[in-house]
C-alpha cells in the first residue's frame, strides 16, 4: 500500500505536495519523495528513505534546496520490493530524466521486463519493480509519444494491478494518472485554477468538494483547472464529479495527541451515525432502506459469505456469526485474498457481503468480481460510497464512521460491526425468524451501545 498525490496549478507545487503526502502518509511511511517540473523545464526529484522520519526529512530538504515548480507528483511508501532507502523511494525517473513516475501495486512480471531493459542498455538505480514503468514510458517519450500514450503503452507490458501517476518534461503543465485492476484507488478534483490527484479522497478535501473516481482501464490528464478522462484506447469518457461526504476538520487531530486517540474518542458518535436512518428508537423498529432485495429474494438466500481483509475480516467474522445466529442462514467469513483461489461454491442464492472501509482494497475487489461472475447478490459495508466496491455491489451499507487515518482501526471496526448486526437483524426479520418484540429488544440494546463504548 502506498500514498499518491499530484498537483497542477498556479502556486508552488512543493508545499502542496508535502501537505498532500501528510494526508496519505497512513498508507505508507517508510519512504517519501516528490518530483516537480522546475521553471527551467527540467524534472527535479527529492526523496528520502528514513522510515518514519522520511516525510519530515523530505520537507526540510525541499525547503533547504528552495525547490519550486507549478506541477508535481509525490509518493509515500510501504516497501514491497527492495530495502528502505533513498534509491528505492519513489518517484522513479527514466535514464534521461524525461519522465518521472510514482506507482502503487505489484508488477508480477517485472523481472522479465527488467532483464529485457538491461539487455537494451538501461541501467537501473533501484531494486523496485516500479522503476521498470519509468524506463518503459521513457522509451516511448523518446519516440515522440505523448505522456498519456507513453504511460498507457508502458503499462500494456505489465501483468498485475497498477496505479501510476507521471509527469514529463515534454509536457510541463500536465500530470497523467492511470489505473489498471485493483491496486488501490485514484481520485481527481479541480477548481478554476487547480487540479489535484490522490490515492485517497481525504487528500483532496482541502482543495475541492467534488471528485471523480477512476475505474480500472482508465487514464486521466490534469492541468491547471482541467480534468480529461480517457479509456486505454484514447476514447474520451464523460463522468460527472460526485460530492464527497468528508470534511477537512475530520482529518485533523485537533487537541488529541494522535489520530488513534482522536478516533477512539469518536467511537460513540460513529455508532450513532451507523444507527441513524435504520433504527427507530421510539417504535423499536429496524429497517435497511439501502437494501433493494425483495422479500422473496431474501427468503431464497441459502448462504452468506462475508469477506474482507485485516480489521474488516475480523468485523466480518462477527457479522457472519450474527447472521447465522439470528437469521439462521449458514454464514462464514472469508479472507478476500484467498476466496477466489479456493474455488468456493457461489451461486445466485448466495449473498456476498464485502467489508472494506476504503472500498478500494485490491483483494476484496477481486473477491467481489469473482462473486459477480457467479451471479450472486452483493452488498458492501463501507465508508466511501463513490468507491470501486460501491460500483460493483448491488447495494451499499455505509458505516458513516467518518475518515479514519490511524492504521489501527477503531471507529471503523465498531461501526462495521454495528452495521453488520443491523443487517443480521434485518435478514432475520425479513425471513420471519424473529418477531417485533425480539427486534425491539435488539434495538434497545443498540441504543445503549454509544454510552457503553
UniProtKB/TrEMBL annotation:
<dbReference type="InterPro" id="IPR047084">
    <property type="entry name" value="GFAT_N"/>
</dbReference>
<dbReference type="GO" id="GO:0097367">
    <property type="term" value="F:carbohydrate derivative binding"/>
</dbReference>
<dbReference type="InterPro" id="IPR001347">
    <property type="entry name" value="SIS_dom"/>
</dbReference>
<dbReference type="GO" id="GO:0004360">
    <property type="term" value="F:glutamine-fructose-6-phosphate transaminase (isomerizing) activity"/>
</dbReference>
<dbReference type="GO" id="GO:0006047">
    <property type="term" value="P:UDP-N-acetylglucosamine metabolic process"/>
</dbReference>
<dbReference type="InterPro" id="IPR029055">
    <property type="entry name" value="Ntn_hydrolases_N"/>
</dbReference>
<protein>
    <recommendedName>
        <fullName>glutamine--fructose-6-phosphate transaminase (isomerizing)</fullName>
        <ecNumber>2.6.1.16</ecNumber>
    </recommendedName>
</protein>
<keyword id="KW-0315">Glutamine amidotransferase</keyword>
<dbReference type="GO" id="GO:0006002">
    <property type="term" value="P:fructose 6-phosphate metabolic process"/>
</dbReference>
<dbReference type="InterPro" id="IPR005855">
    <property type="entry name" value="GFAT"/>
</dbReference>
<dbReference type="InterPro" id="IPR046348">
    <property type="entry name" value="SIS_dom_sf"/>
</dbReference>
<feature type="domain" description="SIS">
    <location>
        <begin position="294"/>
        <end position="438"/>
    </location>
</feature>
<dbReference type="InterPro" id="IPR035466">
    <property type="entry name" value="GlmS/AgaS_SIS"/>
</dbReference>
<dbReference type="Pfam" id="PF13522">
    <property type="entry name" value="GATase_6"/>
</dbReference>
<keyword id="KW-0677">Repeat</keyword>
<keyword id="KW-0032">Aminotransferase</keyword>
<feature type="domain" description="Glutamine amidotransferase type-2">
    <location>
        <begin position="2"/>
        <end position="225"/>
    </location>
</feature>
<dbReference type="InterPro" id="IPR017932">
    <property type="entry name" value="GATase_2_dom"/>
</dbReference>
<dbReference type="GO" id="GO:0006487">
    <property type="term" value="P:protein N-linked glycosylation"/>
</dbReference>
<dbReference type="Pfam" id="PF01380">
    <property type="entry name" value="SIS"/>
</dbReference>
<keyword id="KW-0808">Transferase</keyword>
